[in-house]
Amino acid sequence: MRYVTAGESHGPELVAIVEDVPAGLKVSAEQIDYDLSRRQSGYGRGGRMTIERDHARIVSGVRFGRTLGSPVALVVENRDWVNWTERMAADGQPPADLKREVTPRPGHADLVGALRTNTDDCRDILERASARETAARVAAAGIAREFLAELGVEIYSYVVSVGDVAMKEASPADAASYNPMAIETSEMRCPDAAATEAMKQAINRARRAGESLGGTFRVVATGLVPGLGTYAQAKGRLTGQLGAALFSIPAIKGVEFGLGFEAAQLPGSQVHDPILLAGAGFDRASNNAGGLEGGMTSGLPLVVTAAMKPIPTLMTPLSTVNLETLAPEEASKERSDVCAVPAAAVVAEAEVAFVLASAYQEAFGGTCMADIRRNLEQYKGRLRAFAR
Ligand SMILES: Cc1cc2nc3c(=O)[nH]c(=O)nc-3n(C[C@H](O)[C@H](O)[C@H](O)COP(=O)(O)O)c2cc1C
Ligand SMILES: C=C(O[C@@H]1CC(C(=O)O)=C[C@@H](OP(=O)(O)O)[C@H]1O)C(=O)O
């Protein structure tokens, strides 16, 4: 299952096409809209989120609430488009009073994109480099998430830190034990109420100082069978696929699995997860690996942590060079988020969903749900027999 998106941040709409969707999968537009609203939320977002009310319109590939096995296309309207019709028109000439973006923001794609594409207006770049595009990803991932849910896999995320404020956790393995309601009702997607409040205060301080903040979050997937992915080829390793998927999100600068970088400082006996025989199968005494061994799922929850850099647009801007005059100047001050870590966490859920959905299809087939379910049950039966 793969997606492709199109659409500019202030164009009329975003489009996502999902390919290789099995037939017979129940799809709920309400569930997709719920995920879209989760992506819009989070303390620290800017004025744009008061304009948008993201809703996915399914325009192909679904009939009577079930997928047909054909590509699924989804459209998300940009309500802000009405304010940009002249400046973002697909045809005609630029308006006489068009203000070009010529003071690129350090940390955004403005300068490098302009160099790459030979434009004299950084808006040509920022319209697509904007993380507005991630709304289309979340809409598309609604299909992957429904698919995974049918196979018993749930994905959620929570924020661990914003700037230098972090919630306290004994270990990343705690990730699989939080109450989802505590996360969804926190304005920071953080299950710790005191940390939520401290993160909000940090964002308030940053806003007052014309600053921005990044942070870290974890994505957790439960209900996975062991053995998805493969050790046999580089491109089959889920570690690499998940890393690439998470690094495809704007502003993500680090990814760790389980104990992550901390594992590099510890002796092997404190890192690797002892194997036990429990109930009808194998289990582990711990989950420091974060649910991946040898590039494959271990059957324990997948726990992956990502680090987001601070938002590049600053109300107290850094210096830049004016592309027209070549004189030093302050970088442009666009309307902007101060912190978007909770939103990035929801986007990361979407990316993880696509990787895992593809891994299930690779292992159990991709044509129709009935076959996939049967193949999965057969596999689970074989695993049970293995431990007897
Ligand atoms: C959900 C989300 C919201 C974002 N909001 C903003 C924003 O309002 N202003 C901004 O300058 N950057 C924002 N960013 C970050 C930029 O999109 C990102 O830094 C930029 O595309 C450059 O990509 P890079 O950081 O991967 O180099 C946001 C990122 C995400 C994931
Ligand atoms: C629109 C979204 O995020 C945007 C991401 C973004 C950026 O530069 O990445 C800049 C801001 O857009 P605007 O310039 O219109 O205020 C954010 O609001 C969204 O997440 O839906």
TrEMBL record:
Keywords, A to Z, come to: Amino-acid biosynthesis, Aromatic amino acid biosynthesis, FAD, Flavoprotein, FMN, Lyase, NADP
Q: What is this protein called?
A: Chorismate synthase
Q: Which residues bind NADP(+)?
A: 39, 45
Tell me the GO molecular function terms.
chorismate synthase activity; FMN binding
What does the subunit comment say? Homotetramer.
Q: Which organism is it from?
A: Parvibacter caecicola
Which cofactor(s) does the record list? FMNH2
Against NCBIfam families, the record matches this protein to: aroC, PRK05382.1
Record field: transmembrane:
none
Q: Name one GO cellular component term.
A: cytosol
Of which family is this protein a member? Answer: Belongs to the chorismate synthase family.
The record, for InterPro entries, names:
Chorismate_synth (IPR000453), Chorismate_synth_AroC_sf (IPR035904)
Q: What does this protein do?
A: This reaction introduces a second double bond into the aromatic ring system.
Record's signal peptide: none
Which superkingdom heads the taxonomic lineage of this protein's source?
Answer: Bacteria
